[in-house]
Amino acid sequence: MPVLSEDSGLHETLALLTSQLRPDSNHREEMGFLRDVFSEKSLGYLMKIHEKLRYYERQSPTPVLHSAVALAEDVMEELQAASVHSEERELLQLLSTPHLRAVLVVHDTVAQKNFDPVLPPLPDNLDEDFDEESVKIVRLVKNKEPLGATIRRDEHSGAVVVARIMRGGAADRSGLVHVGDELREVNGIAVLHKRPDEISQILAQSQGSITLKIIPATQEEDRFKESKVFMRALFYYDPREDRAIPCQEAGLPFQRRQVLEVVSQDDPTWWQAKRVGDTNLRAGLIPSKQFQERWVWNDQPCEKETCDCEGYFKGHYVAGLRRSFRLGCRERPGSSQEGKMSSGAESPELLTYEEVARYQHQPGQPPRLVVLIGSLGARLHELKQKMVAENPQHFGVAVPHTTRPRKSHEKEGVEYHFVSKQAFEADLHHNKFLEHGEYKENLYGTSLDAIQAVMAKNKVCLVDVEPEALKQLRTSEFKPYIIFVKPAIQEKRKTPPTSSACDDAAATLDEEQQEMAASAAFIEQHYGHLVDTVLVKEDLQGACAQLRVILEKMSKDSHWVPISWVR
């Protein structure tokens, strides 16, 4: 076998080993596996990168200067004083960009070898009579963020113990603090006999480094179970209004329709979650699905647990009134559709969370159904018809059924499907209609078959329905994209009218505006959790332009949909 020199690189050694591998009758499979591993291109690239880094390390590189940020600021001052030429202005603009400044800060950090925070030495007055095997001293760097841990007082021993570690917080990142650890001191101050508000003050005032004396749990709790579940919130939540949360400052507020990444479900009562797209690494507490459902039914007063900014609390969970739950049923002010829509809201479903996943439409898949719902004044029919007239090859509408006689200028299957009353009622009996109604003793309805017929032509089907029909359409077959159209509400006239006629017109206008606003508020309250986007309509042309943009993004971008649609 050839002898390697000291200067041989790892990738050369790897190539030589590969060439020397010979199948053995007893170890043919193992030799074949090693040959495949050693022949992998990515492994060879890694070895070459390793050699390049070793060569660079042997050159003992030294930074030209240790403060590139200061130099850049000096240059910027000079350029600001005399920035006449375009090149000087361009250089000034480049030096002012946050990305370049961040690169210079990183350069200075590396040049000054300032990788770790500078911690002060341990205090000399630590007790010397403790058992080193049972007590540990933990030092954490705490900036403006909380430590990310909640603590409680043990009912039997009275000890202050760590109740919860927040994902991504300072305590979690350190890996030194665990659930069940007993807290004895904070910055040399004993906490065993401190009141909750005193511990709160100590923790809140601790900035920079914080030293904890901890007795480790006798049996260390399991590390966080891997949990990466995405939930769309179907209700508003503000921990400041929740009297049941262990610690309000540890809570995570969110809006309805916001997508949350649930990172821990270890606690069946309080999940840990982050808002998708949020740059904050620390997770916050949200009520679990089961806990939130229980609160909806149990509307009873509760005791507030004692807590502070670091999560200190004592006591038990007691059922109580959740003021953060804002989905009470209210009657909708006057509307021609009031009876129909209110009846659907008399027994509201338990709106908590809906598990979702990313979905992007792929070529060859049936197009998603586009559903328009609207408040009074939205005039969805003309918006839908204009979109189809502009691009009939791409868009289509479901042709409705009717029992009225066909007029001379009408064609079967174009304006309507003309059927007998017996046939209509038979289809109605077999639940073939999405929605139906009666007008001047004639029946009208939109069937699911009519929607499927448009989608079978590979067209985007546009339908406008009453909001109550959304539940029937939200299936993996249709994958509906739901758009809530509401008219822009004009502000009330500030100048007084000059005549009684104007006064009457203004009063009528104000009444119409109030009805449209009430209609939009009703839909938002009872069906807003099902909506994908909201379109505010000022005029038909502008609304069509908005709708075109929305539909283009729908076809190109990925969207959060119920996980059952993609399984």
Compact summary:
By secondary structure, this protein is α/β, with parallel strands linked by helices. It has helices spanning 10-20, 28-38, 41-58, 68-81, 86-96, 98-111, 170-174, 196-205, 289-297, 338-344, 380-390, 421-429, 448-456, 470-473, 500-527, 540-556, and strands at residues 136-142, 149-153, 160-165, 182-186, 189-190, 208-215, 229-233, 259-264, 270-275, 284-287, 312-313, 353-359, 370-374, 395-397, 401-402, 417-418, 433-439, 442-447, 460-464, 481-487, 533-537, 559-562.
Give me the secondary-structure topology.
Blueprint: H1 10-20, H2 28-38, H3 41-58, H4 68-81, H5 86-96, H6 98-111, E1 136-142, E2 149-153, E3 160-165, H7 170-174, E4 182-186, E5 189-190, H8 196-205, E6 208-215, E7 229-233, E8 259-264, E9 270-275, E10 284-287, H9 289-297, E11 312-313, H10 338-344, E12 353-359, E13 370-374, H11 380-390, E14 395-397, E15 401-402, E16 417-418, H12 421-429, E17 433-439, E18 442-447, H13 448-456, E19 460-464, H14 470-473, E20 481-487, H15 500-527, E21 533-537, H16 540-556, E22 559-562
Parallel strand pairs: 2-11, 13-19, 13-20, 14-19, 15-16, 20-21
Antiparallel strand pairs: 1-6, 2-3, 4-5, 4-6, 7-8, 7-12, 8-9, 9-10, 12-22, 15-18, 17-18
Helix pairs in contact: 1-3, 4-5, 11-16
